[in-house]
Design brief:
66% helix
């Protein structure tokens, strides 16, 4: 189902996304921490791990949803990490460029009929919607200890953002592919 190459791409996606978002989602020291020990560790690595825990599941699960829905319709599907785009964004981040754009990954698959393509296109955003609703439920119904909210709340927000952002009807986005496929089915 998932090839070695795809596993390597998922690992690279996780680290690249963690680094890209390491300034946005910084790890805060735990309560009762020893400041001397905390600041002896390289904070960049801690911030990359923390940002990857928050953002990578949203992106990886989004792309895996596209892959598995395409496969459920009999298509051959492959998950890819966009290495060139990661290199550009990481280079811009290293140059302290004030505005970074976000590229998660993509799935290529063999051709499918329009209605099935619409399902493949919407699978990723629907996954993000479900993850956002799950995060809301966890917080609302206090299903986990409050100390985990520092990860769950931003994880919910990033999933909400990805759901809405990906459904914009702009070429290259899931929303465009979804609406174009539906349009070709009904018109």
């Amino acid at each position: 189902m998932i090839s070695i190459g795809e596993i390597i791409d998922i690992v690279i996606m996780t680290f690249a996304i963690g680094y890209i978002f390491s300034d946005f989602f910084k790890r805060e020291p735990l309560e009762g921490y020893d400041p001397l020990k905390y600041y002896q560790r390289p904070p960049l690595w801690e911030n990359i791990k923390h940002a990857a825990m928050i953002t990578a599941p949203a992106v990886v699960l989004h792309e895996l949803a596209h892959k598995f829905v395409a496969m459920s319709f009999g298509a051959q599907a492959t998950l890819h990490a966009p290495y060139t785009m990661y290199a550009i964004v990481i280079l811009l981040k290293l140059m302290r460029f004030p505005l970074l754009f976000f590229i998660g990954g993509y799935v290529s698959h063999t051709p499918l009929p329009a209605l099935q393509s619409a399902f493949v296109s919407i699978a990723g955003p629907l996954t993000n919607l479900l993850l956002w609703l799950a995060a809301l439920a966890v917080v609302k119904y206090k299903l986990v200890d409050r100390k985990y909210y520092k990860i769950i709340v931003p994880m919910g927000k990033i999933n909400m953002f990805l759901c809405i952002f990906n459904m914009l009807p702009i070429p290259g986005f899931d929303g465009y592919n979804f609406f174009a496929a539906l349009f070709s089915v009904f018109f």
